[in-house]
Amino acid sequence: MKNVIPGDIYVWARTPTDEFDIEIKKDKDEGAFHLLRRVSPHPRDEYRRHDDLERLVESGLVTRKWARTRMSNVDPIAIDREEQRKPCGTTPTLSR
């Protein structure tokens, strides 16, 4: 890092529940290192978020498509494709 990046490193990230603001000082660097950090939500938080989104969809305040984009464990594009394929399979003229 010392020879590649000219100054200190500032890392900022925001999630629906947390905000991270980290500064890595160049002068405290002791040589080459590899930093890998995986951040994943707690299962209980995911359950609450899913439950809240389900209530919002049922009440009609938000669409299913919007709610799917807010869930970290769901691929909204893949689900949209799957839902578009379903009617084709049930159509009598296409299922022969």
Biggest sheet features: 2 strands, antiparallel
| Assembly level | single chain
Output the strand order for the largest sheet.
Answer: 1-2
Individual helix count: 3
Helix content: 25-40%
**Low-pLDDT stretches:** none
**Radius of gyration (Å):** 22 Å
Tally the beta strands. Answer: 2
Give, in order, the helices and strands. EEHHH
- Cα-to-Cα separation, first versus last residue: 63 Å
Morphology call: elongated
Structural class: alpha+beta
**Average pLDDT reading:** 77
| Proportion in β-strands | 5-15%
Please, could you describe this protein's structure?
It is a single chain. The chain has 96 residues and is an alpha+beta fold. It has a domain of 48 residues. 40% of the residues lie in helices and 12% in strands. It contains three helices and two strands. It has a two-stranded antiparallel sheet. A hairpin with a 4-residue loop joins strand 1 and strand 2. It is elongated, with a radius of gyration of 22 Å. The mean pLDDT is 77.
Give a brief outline of the structure.
This protein has 96 residues and is α+β, with helices and mostly antiparallel strands.
Question: Which labels suit this protein?
Answer:
2 strands, 96 residues, elongated, two-stranded antiparallel ribbon, alpha+beta, 40% helix, 3 helices
Helix and strand layout, with pairings?
Elements: E1 9-14, E2 19-24, H1 43-59, H2 64-69, H3 76-90
Antiparallel strand pairs: 1-2
